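One-letter codes give the sequence; the integers encode the fold. A sample entry reads:
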Amino acid sequence: MHLRLITAGESHGPGLTCIVEGLPAGLELDREAIDRDMARRQLGHGRGGRMKIETDRAHVTAGVRHGRTMGGPIALQVANRDYTNWDERMNPWPVEADVPEVHLPRPGHADLVGVWKYGFTDVRNVLERASARETAARVAGGAVCRAFLEAVGVRIRSHVVQIGTVVAPERGAPLTVADFDDVDADPVRCLDADSSRAMVEHINVQRKANESIGGVFEVIAFGAVPGLGSHVSWEERLDGRIASAICSIQAVKGVTLGEAFEIAAKPGSEAHDEIFYSQERGYYRETNRSGGLEGGMTTGEPLVVRGAMKPLPTLTQPLRSVDIETREPAQALRERTDSSTVPAAGVVAEAMLAYVVANAYREKFGGDHVDDVRAAVERYCERIGWKPR
């Protein structure tokens, strides 16, 4: 059994759609929890004017009856309220008005390569789909995957560890689910108060200078059983799937699993997670340098993933570009934009990690009804003698 998540829609079109296929029947969904994740994607100091227009809600149109999944594909729709201002420019059907084309590609965006690849003369045909607005649909689908994971004991959380030059200090003790109770109340979703204040100030300074700012977020999955993924085929290695999913988020240019680059500079004796055993705990590790992954499979330790996000390519003071119609030098297109979306990117990464881990559970445990899945997970944990930490 495989899980599939697909999105459709454009940034300023009528709306976005997400279809999730492969979840078992009988899974209870919470409408408020899904909409809460939608609202969390809009959080963070540094967001632009679009967030003042949109109040995202996910409207379920298929696959759910009376709050429970029925085993078929689940369809969710997210309306674009801003479409009322773009009806002529983004109408699916021909309009009488003369709609001017956009000929000013932005460096760092899909604009120029997209028009080359698909044979367009209008950059808007590319930028509308390439926009990070598409992630609203992913978060809707990810919230459904999260509900499935919570039914089998997995919790996913995220926080910001860097914005621009401001880096939060490493915490002395491993994070727990409880450490994230108030993270969404922080203006940049950072767990360190001093770093948060410095990040907010850095965003303010850069915004006044007409700059955008990147950074790093961390997402953690707690409670995943050992043995998700596989070592037997490159395409089944879970670390590869996770890296692909996180790098698919717009503006993310790098992914680390566990301590990654730090252990690349260490000798082997300091790079791996030694194995211990006791009657009370069974097999366990005292470190988690691998980020909960060995040989393409989960180890039972928390899955720890970081994503590095570049500064957004749409600037209030545009970069130099070329008009693709005249071939003359010009400034790149200026659209409504954010200064920083690193806090929101962490929420999107939660959705993508939820999808990958949920898919791994479906592949390993199958089950037509969610109770079948729970029973299969329990039997497996009994067989290997593993208990959730």
Summary: The longest helix spans residues 342-365.
